[in-house]
Structure formats: structure tokens, C-alpha cells
């Protein structure tokens, strides 16, 4: 599977998984792209999901017909270390992964646990 890391997500995911190819938004030349256009670009480039720390993205975008999913990392702070701590949970999503869905991965100091 191929997942896009949005520009607020750490590059430290790259090369850390045998199941997922992670590519950073900036490495695709898409720096500064707005969420709606980013979803379209990612889908056309063959990505199955976008990984983000932007908790609003899942509510702002309609995934119907996009063929791509959004995975939100619910962590605080959104440091590279805390993001990388979510890798196993991201890989666990692959068991029942479907496109055009939103997923939330709760990591260190998740706001859901507050």
C-alpha cells in the first residue's frame, strides 16, 4: 500500500514499514496544496490514504468517489516521536482497510483520552 504523509506529518515514517510505502507531500512537489486538491492529486497518483495530524480534515472533505482514505493521528504534541509511535496501529488498520473511509489512530496523549 502507498500512503501520503501530509506536510505536517513527519518524514520519519519513510522506510519504517514493510507493508506500507510512505511518501511525503513535499517530496511529491505538492507543498502548500489545500486539502481538497491534495486528496485529488493523491488519488490520481495511486495513494490509498493520506496520513495527517489535522483533526479537521476528515470533517471538511467528502471522500465519496475519491478512492482514498484519511488517517488522522490523534496525538499531543504532534512531535515526530509521537507520530512514529503510531506506526504499529497504522499497520494494524491494513487488516480491514477500505478506501473512502476515515480512520483515527490514537497515539501518545490522545485528546480522546482527556
Plain-language structure description:
- The protein is of the alpha/beta class and 114 residues long.
- The chain has four helices and five strands; from the N terminus they run ββαβαβααβ.
- A five-stranded parallel beta sheet has the order 2-1-3-4-5, with helices on both faces.
- β3 (49-52), α2 (57-60) and β4 form a beta-alpha-beta unit.
- The chain is globular.
- The N and C termini lie far apart (32 Å).
- The mean pLDDT is 93.
Please give the structural blueprint.
Blueprint (H helix, E strand, L loop, with lengths): L1 E4 L15 E4 L10 H10 L4 E4 L4 H4 L8 E6 L5 H5 L2 H7 L8 E5 L8
Parallel strand pairs: 1-2, 1-3, 3-4, 4-5
Derived from helix and strand composition plus strand pairing, the structural class reads: alpha/beta
What percent strand? 15-25%
Strand order of the largest sheet: 2-1-3-4-5
Order of helices and strands: EEHEHEHHE
Poorly predicted runs are: none
Query: How many E-type strands?
Result: 5
Our count of helices gives 4
How confident overall, as mean pLDDT?
93
Helix content: 10-25%
- Major sheet summary line: 5 strands, parallel
Q: Which descriptor suits the 3D outline?
A: globular
Q: Compute the separation of the termini in Å.
A: 32 Å
Alpha carbon gyration radius:
13 Å
Amino acid at each position: 500500500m502507498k500512503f501520503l504523509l501530509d506536510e505536517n506529518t513527519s518524514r520519519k515514517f519513510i522506510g519504517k514499514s514493510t507493508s506500507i510505502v510512505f511518501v511525503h507531500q513535499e517530496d511529491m512537489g505538492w507543498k502548500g496544496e489545500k486539502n481538497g486538491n491534495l486528496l485529488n492529486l493523491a488519488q490520481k497518483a495511486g495513494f490509498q490514504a493520506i496520513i495527517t495530524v489535522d483533526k479537521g480534515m476528515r470533517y471538511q472533505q467528502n471522500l465519496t468517489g475519491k478512492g482514498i482514505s484519511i488517517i488522522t493521528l490523534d496525538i499531543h504534541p504532534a512531535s515526530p516521536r509521537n507520530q512514529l509511535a503510531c506506526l504499529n496501529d497504522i499497520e494494524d488498520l491494513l487488516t480491514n482497510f477500505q478506501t473512502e473511509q476515515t480512520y483515527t489512530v490514537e497515539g501518545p496523549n490522545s485528546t480522546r483520552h482527556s
